[in-house]
Design brief:
This protein is an alpha+beta fold. It contains eleven helices and 15 strands. The N terminus is likely disordered.
Length: 411
């Protein structure tokens, strides 16, 4: 008769084997073959599903060694990434390295395939439709389909192409008409006055309100006189050039006097000890606080609208990534030097600004007003703001690239 320890071992082995079998199920066979060079510590890879979750990842291999890594994957869409931190690939300067990726025995990617020679990084998208009756359904609609499964600056560039190809340049004066229909207060006082993000008081009665068309600015003398067209990314940053100057996705109606107080300042978070101007709703001008990483003057809107402006900045960085780099906005003003990375078409903004924008984007989620305005903007100029439609795109782009958000606190 078996003793109690034998029975226990038998049960544990049975449970373990059963668990392994359940985990595998009817998965498809994906196999990665690696042949490392002399600097294998530089090599890493990951596989992501359509939710941008890591399915498998690997690193820390021995040099001049061969590996065959079998994996089971569910039917669906995937992104395979392999990178070499040394920027020289795995072949052939420092050994005869290589990699091959197989799905159900078929080669779908190698180090010198359709992408050319592998140097620093490859992203490859694939789905299992040819090997399964369960067809992959993209979470993106047809408008964003070419960006499906991408991440990092490759995703940003794919979105750039979408936004640019569908764009129709509007006239700057046509923005008045757009505001009169699509920038009205239907949420707070619900009085169909102009929704001014620099004077709106979400929790109390506004100090004043503007009537569409009738109170457009000529010259503004004081707060409450009239409303103007505000470029969230100031027009002097891009020399007032078209089509940025009339792109409604980053232009909002605001009080003319508050607009003048902001001037060309970047958005930021003000140190409460050094405030030089405060609008009727609490928007401020002053020195950026030390933990922001930028202590020069900034303009800080109220919390209610910080996400709106962050998404406008993300849009500009994406829609105009080619123009920003080519014209080097970084050199245009002292503010652009502080806010933009020189000749950058990928990260675009300085780290302190990206850190803050990502925080604003997260803490002030997309509102119904933004969605409605985005729909109207597509009719007006032919394209959309992808960071309103898919808020996760922001982290898929900037945090995917290894951007480390600094930790800081609002005083």
């Amino acid at each position: 008769m078996p003793n109690v320890y034998s029975i226990l071992i038998f049960v544990l082995v049975s449970v373990f084997a059963s668990g392994c079998k359940d985990d595998q199920g009817d998965k498809l066979n994906l196999t990665l073959k690696l042949n490392t060079d002399r600097y294998s510590e530089e090599l890493s890879w990951s596989i992501f599903n359509s939710k941008h979750e890591i399915v498998r990842t690997g690193s820390g291999y021995e040099s001049n060694a061969e590996y065959e890594i079998p994996m089971g994957v569910d039917p669906g869409g995937y992104r395979f990434e392999i990178s070499d931190s040394g920027g020289d690939g795995v072949c052939c300067s420092y050994g005869n390295g290589s990699f091959e990726l197989y799905l159900e025995g078929d080669l779908i990617l190698d180090d010198s395939g359709t992408f050319g020679d592998f140097t620093d990084e490859i992203q490859h998208r694939f789905n299992t439709d040819n090997y399964s009756d369960d067809k992959y359904e993209s979470p993106l609609n047809s408008y964003y389909q070419t960006a499906d499964l991408l991440a990092g600056y490759e995703l940003k560039s794919a979105l750039h192409s979408i936004l640019k190809n569908n764009y129709v340049t509007a006239d700057f004066d046509d923005l008045w008409g757009f505001f009169s229909v699509n920038s009205l207060d239907t949420r707070y006082e619900k009085d169909s006055s102009i929704l001014d993000r620099y004077s709106e008081k979400p929790a109390t009665v506004d100090s004043y309100s503007f009537t569409a068309i009738d109170q457009q600015c000529g010259d503004s003398l004081a707060e409450g006189d009239c409303y103007e067209r505000e470029h969230s990314v100031p027009s002097n940053w891009f020399d007032g050039d078209a089509p940025m100057n009339s792109d409604v996705h980053h232009i909002f109606p605001v009080d003319g006097a508050v607009k003048a107080a902001r001037g060309e300042l970047p958005y930021g978070e003000v140190d409460s000890r050094f405030v030089s101007f405060t609008s009727s709703n609490g928007s401020k001008v002053g020195a950026g606080h030390l933990e922001l990483g930028y202590t020069q003057p900034v303009f800080e809107p109220i919390d209610e609208f910080k996400g709106d402006f962050a998404r406008a900045y993300f849009y500009i960085a994406t829609r105009y990534e080619d123009v920003i780099a080519k014209d080097d906005w970084h050199r245009n003003t002292k503010e652009t030097t502080a806010a933009l990375v020189e000749e950058s078409s990928d990260q675009v903004y300085q780290s302190w600004l990206i850190t803050m924008l990502l925080k604003w984007h997260e803490s002030d989620p997309v509102s119904a007003e933004e969605i409605s305005r985005n729909d109207a903007a597509e009719i007006f100029q032919g394209n959309r703001n992808p960071f309103i439609d898919h808020p996760d795109f922001a982290k898929y782009i900037w945090t995917h690239e290894g951007f480390e958000a600094a930790e800081y606190h609002v005083y």
